[in-house]
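User: Predict the structure for this protein chain, please.
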Amino acid sequence: MLAKGLSNVSVMGVMRVAVVLLLVFACYRIIQPFLGALIWAVIIAVSVWPGYNWLVLKLGNRRQLAALVMIGAIALAIAAPIALMILSLSDLWPFLSQVARGLTGYHLPDPPAWLLSLPAIGEPLGQIWRGAQSDLPAMLGKLMPAINRGALWSLSYGAQLALSLLEIVLALVVAGLLLINGEHAWRVAENTIVKLGGAPATELPEVVSRTIRGVTTGVIGTALVQTLLCVIGLVIAGVPAPVVLGFLCFMLAVAQLPTLLVWLPAAAWVFYTGHNGLALFLALWGFLLVNTIDNFIKPMVISQGAKLPLSLIFIGVIGGLLAWGMIGLFIGPTLLAVGYTLFVYWLRGDETLPPGV
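Assistant: Here is the predicted structure, written as structure tokens:
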């Protein structure tokens, strides 16, 4: 009888676990389409929480109004440029096609001496230059199929950007609700972490929030400032599709790659069109502002969060983009940063983490 009773208890225990796992799996399948937006909402709420509290005090403790103002500002900074980029994508490839046709009548000068003097690659580049010099229309003709394929790709990518824009709008709405109910949400997070990790995990919420703010301000925030400066320079110089190029600049900046890959070719194009003064302005603007502003911003803000390997940020950007599309640019490096910080915390055991983990 005792064995039979233990067997029944064991079966009931297995059934309870199976039901709980089934419920968790069903809930995951339900929220899976919105998972990226929900994670992004949490990141937004945690990142702007200090600024939101300051705004609440300035607005006479009107939390709903403060949340509306804060989310509206974020929407103008993130959602509006993406919407403009979607609209400008349709004009980019016809412009490139027109430029390619206009170049057919252009005669290249002799290759510059500095190009030929480059070690290892100087001679091959010189041969390509001479080939284009002798028959530029034929070389450009080979590029037209690639331009046409790029136009088709931009249409499909524009549809993906539209979906990403909807996800961003959803994330902003959820972030606003989290801000309004911030204290309650924080207590729930603390209680959950303590339930999972015990008393030694009581400081983890603060560690995670500090890491999130460090990434959003030190990496993403700096990239937004660089992008804004880049777009301003492109607009002043009269470069077409400045928002699209600005988005490319943002991707490079978040991935810790040089932004000159965007504005330097743009300056060369302006020089080709005959506006030497504007080309010089754009080159100086890029070197003196866009390319160096992060050297002044990052030391001021990154110390508030985690000191992360650049390779981790780069992998987070690429992996996040592949996993979640547009919002993955924000989610990827932030999640990897949080995971890296928790891993370091786990390695150190019960030791108290210093501010610059």
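Residues 88 and 111 are 35 Å apart (CA to CA).
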